[in-house]
Amino acid sequence: MPSLDPPVSPELPDPSAALVALQKRALSVLAALPPDALELGELFRAAGHELALVGGPVRDAFLGRSSADLDFTTSADPDQTQAILARWGDAHWDIGKEFGTIGARRFAGRRASLAQDVVVEVTTYRSDEYDPTSRKPQVAFGDSLEGDLSRRDFTVNSMAVRVPDLTFVDPFDGLTDLAAGVLRTPVDPRQSFDDDPLRMMRAARFAAQLGFAVDPAAREAIVEMADRIAIVSAERVRDELSKLLLSVQPRTGLEVLVDTGLAQHVLPELPALRLEIDEHHRHKDVYEHSLMVLDKAIALETGPDGAVPGPDLVLRLAALLHDIGKPRTRRFEEGGGVSFHHHEMVGAKLVAKRLKELRFDKATVQAVARLTELHLRFHGYGEGAWTDSAVRRYVTDAGPLLERLHRLTRSDCTTRNVRKAAQLSAAYDDLEQRIARLREQEELSSIRPDLDGTQIMAILDLPPGREVGEAYKYLLELRMERGPLGPDAAREELLSWWAARS
Question: Which domains does the chain have, with CATH numbers?
Answer without folding.
Answer: 1-180 (3.30.460.10), 187-267 (1.10.110.30), 275-446 (no CATH), 453-501 (no CATH)
